[in-house]
Each structure stands twice: as structure tokens, then as C-alpha cells.
Amino acid sequence: MSTQARSFTPYLFMAPAAAVLVVALLYPIAYMIYASFLDWNPSQRIGQATFVGLRNYTSLWSDANFRESFGVTLKFASLVVSIEMILGVGLAMLLDRSIRGMTVLRTIFILPMMIAPIVVGLIWRYMYHPTVGIFNRTLNSLGFESVPWLSDSFWSLTSIIIADIWQWTPFIFILSLAALQSLPRSALEAARIDGASGWQQIVYIKLPLMMPVLIVTLLLRLIDAFKVLEVVLVMTNGGPGLSTEILSLRIARTASEFRELGVAAAMSNYLLILLMILTAIMFTYTRLSEARAARLRQMSEEG
Amino acid sequence: MPTLKLERLCKRYASHEVIHSIDLEMADREFTVLVGPSGCGKSTTLRMIAGLETVSDGEIYIDGRPVSRLEPKERGLAMVFQDYALYPHMNVAKNMSFALRLEKKPKAEINKKVNEVAEMLGLSNLLHRKPAELSGGQRQRVAMGRALTRDAATFLFDEPLSNLDAKLRGQMRAELALMSQQVQKNMVYVTHDQVEAMTLADRIVVMQDGHIRQQGTPEELFRHPNSKFVAGFIGSPPMNFLKGVISQSGNETAVVGQGYKLSLSPEQAQRVSKQDNQEVILGIRPSDLSYAPDAKAEDALELKVVISEYIGAQSILLASCGDQNISVEIKSDQPVPLQETMKFAVHKGGLHLFDQKTEAAI
Ligand SMILES: Nc1ncnc2c1ncn2[C@@H]1O[C@H](COP(=O)(O)OP(=O)(O)OP(=O)(O)O)[C@@H](O)[C@H]1O
Ligand SMILES: [Mg+2]
After folding, report:
1. pTM
2. What CA–CA distance (Å, rounded) separates B116 from B112?
3. Domains in chain B, please, with CATH?
4. How far is B57 from chain A (nearest CA, A)?
């Protein structure tokens, strides 16, 4: 076989996968991007929609509701992900030991993650119920006032944050636990001999070594938190007012209620761009720190 | 002054006891080697001294202070691990300075110490590399350097050379011997390799099945092993063992076995029991035999040489004595004919007798 033919061979083998990728992944995305330039009503076929250029994108920024929804999403995602990371990693550190009953405990811990989001929303909606919900009943029986869990704009955002933390901390917990348990045992023993206290071992050895896993976990959670829909839909449906109207909820409503597919597509694209920027920042950061270490090394070995 | 002392030290995993009440004292600035076959409890003992394993029973004293309940860092030890246990995310300099940085020592002092040790170990131009970018021997040196920067009074080593190839191991062994002379600290060194033990140790402690079988200088252990186990473990190639019985005729005592009869020295004759026909195991080191066609019959073995293995200046002869096999180490410049029965003289003091049942030296 000639060299030329051989260099072509890998592409031949990749072709089917590439074709699937184009059809299954890129086509919908391209479709969505195209749609975001249209003034498109669901009753129209896509060919009938008028092309409006970037109008959907620019007009969104003068839309106070969108801006508020965007803000709520940012607040929600950053809060839940940071709290979940701290709780999940912390729990993993606490439960990374072999005492009896730990397996059972770990299994219980990851249960919430296995429940369908709609059901999670329903469970929490009942628990938050103003009169028969367990929280207010408990508060009342202890002599406290009822809390307007889902009817006050501050409390409703807090409530969905609590529910999300309950559901997704386990995800971070199991990934961190797996990362912890695959750390080199002897390096930790060496750290103990070197005089590191439990806390110092966590800060200087465990966390840095878990970092690659933690970054991916954080990214996965962040992407997911920006797209959360069902739990909020069931619990508050975005209310009261727009206090819990996260972006995915607004996108769904723009498409189905306001019947503006082009605007909905533009919003989705903003979300996509935001997530891509976040991902890029994280990867550039690790890339940069690696490059810095390499440069330092080279300097010292030459000099 | 003894600085490290183990007193009736025991280790149990669940109900399974792996270290059976061992007693050991190590003198100041002594290089002590724990040696024994795999699974005999060397690492467990070392890890108890380090504080990485709990002590089930007994006590460890460092400078007279009981330490078995203290955290590793409170014991003032440094340790080198078999797999080096470097911190993968830190470069060489950071690895070596970790303990000092935890102690919040001034930066200038840390740098000075790290550079000093790196100089001594030839690591100066690798200080900014990560462990993954080093060869096995270099990693080994970094692990050693990390222990050295710490100014600990006692160094623990758990088979630090066993992951290296034979040539590098020899080289690192020599460097280690040199280093231990330079730094003058207490060293406790675990290995299953008796050559390492013999070359490095001031004192060897031979362990088996969680017991200490014998301890002493390399020479003591080589010359006067107290049991068949120690005799077979120390020395390479290993000691030959032949079955025999004690026989007495007149004022001469001899050990007699299939195809041989060797007379005992008066001191040895004293120690064997006076009754006739005591069953013994006779041990002779390969190096205690030499080709001597005109030796006296009662001082020599008649061996039929089967194979001669040339290993340079020395050759190892594999021979048979009756139906038992025996090896002989001789200088290569004496050619020995194969497949012929010849006389090999036993050097003076080369006969070791062990009780058939207890395997203790007689
Ligand atoms: N965590 C444990 N649980 C139960 N038994 C153990 C445990 N660790 C070690 N042992 C047992 O203790 C004994 C001594 O083990 P140790 O690691 O000290 O051996 P060693 O002398 O270092 O052997 P090697 O030369 O192979 O490293 C072994 O029989 C081993 O099976
Ligand atoms: Mg071991």
C-alpha cells in the first residue's frame, strides 16, 4: 500500500463516527443557531420565517425579564455548585475511612441522586407546603412562625437551592470519594511522617491530587445547574414573580407560551456561549499553570 | 546510650498475630538492618516504629520516652518508602522541603538546606522536575533527599532499593553506605536481600514468622548462626545442609552421613551429646570447601562434580555427595574435572551442626 493511501486510512475508519456526529450533534446545533436569527412562530414552517439578523440577541438585553432571569440563573448556579462542592468534598473526606456500616451509609447518601427530578420536585413541594408541609409543622410545633417557603421571593429561591443541594451533593460526594480512595496511600503516609496534620494533609496533598477530578466534577455540575428545569418547574414554576425563573424555564416559556422560537433559540445560545466560556476558562487555567511549571523547570535546568 | 528500643512488641490484625512479642535495642548511630523472608513482619515492625501502624501490645521507646501512642510527626523520624511515595504534584524541591515548609522555617534556611542535600545527592539540576519526569534511580534519590532535609534523629528505610535494577541497586547501595557514614544517624533498614543486609549493616536482625531469630554483626551471623534458618538465610550461595549422625569411637567424635565421615574439633565434640547416634544436620558453606586431592579422609568430602558454573573469578560447582546435592565455591583458576569423584577439604571451623528436631545450632 502506498504511503498516501495509508495516511488516508484512518479517516476512512473515522468516517462513520464523523457522519453520526454531524447528523446527531452538529445538525441540531446548527439548526438552533440558524433559528436564532429568525422571527419564527411555531405555526410557521422554518422556510416561512423572516430573517431578522441579530435582532433577537440585541433585543434580549433590553428585556428586563430576561436580564432578571439571567441573574437568577447565575445566582442559583453559582450558589448551588459552590455549596454542593464544599459539602460533597467535605463529606467524602469525613467518610473516607473503613469503619463498620460505612457501605450502608454511603449507599444511603447517594439515594437522592437516583430519584427522578419530577419526583424530587413533588416531594419537596409537599415538604414546603405552607400548612401541611413537614418544615412548617415542625417549626410551628417548636413554637416558631411559619416560613413562606414558596411564596416569598427570597425564600422560594432559597427553597429551590436547598432542594438542588439535597439532590446533587451526592454526585460530588461519590466522585470525590472515588478520587480520594485512589490517591496513593504511601504519599499520604509520607505526609504524616513529614508532620502534616489531618487538615494540612487535606490542603496540601489530598485536594491538589484530587484537583483533576474535582475540576471535571465542577464542570459537569455547573453545566447541569445552568440547565435545571423540572424541579423548579414543579416546585415554583418560576414564581413568585420572576424570583425563581431560571433561564431554562424562561426558554421553555418563550417557546411555548410567547410562541417566539427565534428568541428562545437566541437565549439557548447565550446559555451555550456562557457554558463554553466557563469551560474554556477552566481548561486555560490548568493549561497555563502547567505551562508555567514547565517554563520554570526549563529555566532552572538551563541556568 | 540506646536510642531506640522495642519491648515485647506485638502486632495483631483482628485475632491474627503477625508480630510475636519482639525485643530489640538499637545503639546510638547504629545501622540496623531487619532482614527476613517475605511476609515475616519486617515492614510491619518498621511501620509500628514509624507510627503508621498501631501497636497492639508492648512499647516502643525513643531516647527512653514511650512513643507508641504518639503521632508519627511527634517521634522525630524520617522514612524512605519502597515505592518512594513522592508527592506527585510537587517538584523535587517542593518534595524535599515539604516538612520544613510545614514547620514554617524561614525561606532562606529552607533553600539552603534543600540545595545542600540536592548537591550531596546529585539532584541540583533536577529541582524543578515533577516526580513523573524522573527515572527510578533519581526518584529514589529524591526520596532519600526528602528524608535527609529533615534533620531527624532516626531514619527508617523500607526496602528502598528493591524497585531498581541490579546494577543501579549496587550503585545506590554504595551511595547509601557512604551517606550513612556522612550523616551519622540511627538507621533502621528493612530488606529481604541478605547481600544488602551484609554490606550495609552494623547489626543485622534476622526475622522469621514474626519472631527475631538472631541479631548481631554481619560477621557474627555469618560465622556463628544460631539456627539452621539463619545459617541458610545469611550468605550467598547459601549454606549446604547434609543429614548425619554423631558417632564416637575411642576419643574421636565424628559426624557420619551417607558417603562421608568428618571428624569434629574438640570444642564441637564437647557440645554434642555424649550418647551415640544423635541425629544432626551438618552445615557447610560453599566457600568453606576447597579442592584438595591429598587431604586427610576425616577432613574431606568425596564429591562427584556434576556442573561447574563460571561466574568470573569464582566458580560454583554443583556436586553430589551420596544422593544429596552440595555446592562448592572455588577460584576459577583451578580447573576441576567433571563427573569424577574427588576430595574437597573442609576448612577449619567450617562445620556447623544443628539439631535435627529443633534446628538450633549445637
Ligand atoms: N492489613 C493487614 N491485615 C492482615 N494481615 C496483614 C496486614 N498487613 C500485613 N499483614 C500480614 O502480616 C505479615 C507481615 O507482613 P509484612 O508486610 O510486615 O511483611 P514483610 O516482612 O514486610 O514482607 P515483604 O518482604 O514481602 O515486604 C504478613 O503475613 C501479612 O500477611
Ligand atoms: Mg515489606
Report:
1. 0.80
2. 6
3. 4-233 (3.40.50.300), 245-355 (2.40.50.100)
4. 22
